[in-house]
Design goal:
The complex is a heterodimer of chains A (115) and B (113).
Chain A (H helix, E strand, L loop, with lengths): L4 E3 L2 E4 L5 E6 L6 E7 L6 E7 L2 E4 L8 E4 L6 E5 L8 E8 L9 E2 L3 E5 L1
Parallel strand pairs in A: 2-11
Antiparallel strand pairs in A: 1-3, 3-8, 4-5, 4-9, 5-6, 7-8, 9-10, 9-11
Chain B lengths: L2 E3 L4 E5 L4 E3 L2 E3 L5 E7 L5 E7 L5 E3 L4 E6 L4 E6 L8 E8 L6 E3 L3 E6 L1
Parallel strand pairs in B: 2-12
Antiparallel strand pairs in B: 1-4, 3-9, 5-6, 5-10, 7-8, 8-9, 10-11, 10-12
The chains are: A mainly beta (115), B mainly beta (113).
């Protein structure tokens, strides 16, 4: 079974530039998560999908960040105008709902540096 | 809201020695608890998980953890550390029936020869 894949693995931007991250979850997994992991910190949830629907995006900076999962499979996270504070690793995870006992499987992440 | 504290940012252990990484959680009720490991430039991998039941949980590669409701703790243990265990370890909590997993800040494990 293929794991969660993400691309690109690395991105370096100037402030004000836009960037998109792509995630392909494990086949059959209906839930998908995007996390932001600043250096030397734990992951922090940004947004969560069940199929194509956004369930919780309360931690997503809505003025510059957006996330979609149009067909309930792959997902894209976009930063419209990056800031230095966005420097972090962006992790995608997926799971299959087993009545609350699902496990999240993580991709390798995209390491973003904003200069 | 649930939260997790990992009081040790860095722990150094000699190869072959025993290990304990500390985790304290805050949640009103009985949560689901997890330990994840992150190797350099990789995503997180699940080591073990606790769902209400037996308080001692066995994981992969000889890791185990013990849930204590009275101490609000979920410490990770290993009897004999190997150099390949050099990584960052994250404790995480999720409320029963919920979806949001809250992670601690992580403990970096260094293994000395």
């Amino acid at each position: 079974e293929a794991g969660v894949t993400q691309s690109p693995r690395y991105a370096v931007l100037q402030e004000g530039q836009a960037v998109s991250f792509w995630c392909d979850p494990i086949s059959g997994h209906d839930t998908l998560y995007w996390y932001q992991q600043p250096r030397d910190q734990g992951p922090q949830l940004l947004v969560y999908f069940r199929d194509e629907a956004v369930i919780d995006n309360s931690q997503l900076p809505s003025d510059r960040f957006s996330a979609v999962r149009p067909k309930g499979t792959n997902s894209t996270l976009k930063i419209q105008s990056a800031k230095q504070g966005d420097t972090a690793t962006y992790l995608c995870a997926s799971s299959r709902d087993w009545g609350g006992r699902d496990e999240q499987y993580f991709g390798p992440g995209t390491r973003l540096t904003v200069l | 809201a649930q939260s997790v504290t990992q009081p040790d940012a860095r722990v150094t252990v000699s190869e072959g020695a025993s290990l304990q990484l500390r985790c304290k959680y805050s949640y009103f009720g009985t949560p689901y608890l997890f330990w994840y490991v992150q190797y350099p430039r990789q995503g997180l991998q699940l080591l073990l998980k606790y769902y209400p039941g037996d308080p001692v949980v066995q994981g992969v590669n000889g890791f185990e953890a013990e849930f204590s409701k009275s101490n609000s703790s979920f410490h990770l243990r290993k009897a004999s550390v190997h150099w390949s265990d050099w990584a960052v370890y994250f404790c995480a909590v999720r409320r029963t029936g919920g979806y949001k997993v809250v992670f601690g800040s992580g403990t970096r494990l260094l293994v000395s020869p």
